[in-house]
Specification:
By secondary structure, the chain is of the alpha+beta class. The protein folds into 2 domains: about 1-40; about 40-185, Umud Fragment, subunit A, CATH 2.10.109.10. The protein contains 3 helices and 12 strands; from the N terminus they run αβββββββαββαβββ. The strands form 2 sheets. Strands 1, 2, 3, 4, 9, 10, 11 and 12 form an 8-stranded antiparallel beta sheet that branches. A 4-stranded antiparallel beta sheet has the order 7-6-5-8, with no helix packed on it. It catalyses: Cleavage of hydrophobic, N-terminal signal or leader sequences from secreted and periplasmic proteins. It is found in: Cell membrane; Membrane. This is Signal peptidase I. One of its GO terms (molecular function) is signal peptidase activity.
């Protein structure tokens, strides 16, 4: 066999190997994005001071294949046909949730919410009176969760849209990755 034929075959093999590697990478990226993790951009101020407008974060889509959302989880869900929301899970199926006197209660027990402290204090210094407005008891139906934003005076959540179907949940927010200076785990 001539050197020219051998060289041509080697080039074809190399091109095939690169094409195959690229194809595998594309398929893996698609599978990871579809079933495991996805990027999400925070839009708005409803989760201040926990999450900020335009922050980018990673959503774990696989976590809820193994179990349902739990109180305290920060989740992304399909709120409208073309829009996803990010909120905190407050109550799960069978729970009764209510707010009175600027305090949140689940099943009649006061919920400690340390993630609100900083924003609640700033809100009151700015002249705000009630951070979490009163609402009557709501029993969370089967296959639903009750969600609220951490910026209670500026959040469209289960108080307005009602309990959220678990089937609409995209995943749990795991960490912010942009801006780089603010990279952190979400809690």
């Amino acid at each position: 066999m001539s050197e020219e034929v051998t060289s041509t075959r080697a080039k074809k093999n190399e091109i095939w190997e690169w094409t195959r590697a690229l194809g595998i990478a594309i398929v893996l990226a698609f599978l990871i994005r579809t079933f495991l993790f996805a990027p999400f951009i925070v839009e708005g101020e409803s989760m201040e001071t926990t999450l900020h407008n335009n922050e980018k974060l990673v959503v774990n889509k696989a976590i809820y294949y193994m179990g349902d959302p739990k109180p305290g989880d920060i989740i992304v869900f399909h709120a409208e046909a073309t829009r996803d929301y990010i909120k905190r899970v407050i109550a799960v199926p069978g729970d009764t949730v209510e707010a009175k006197g600027d305090q949140l209660f689940v099943n009649g027990k006061l919920v400690e919410e340390p993630y609100l402290a900083q924003h609640k204090e700033a809100w009151k210094k700015e002249g705000g009176t009630v951070f979490t407005s009163d609402f009557p008891p709501v029993k969370v139906p089967a296959d639903h969760i009750f969600v609220m934003g951490d910026n209670r005076p500026n959040s469209r959540d289960s108080r307005m849209i009602g309990p959220v179907a678990i089937s609409t949940v995209v995943g749990r927010a795991e960490f912010t990755f942009w801006p780089l200076a603010d990279m952190r785990m979400t809690k």
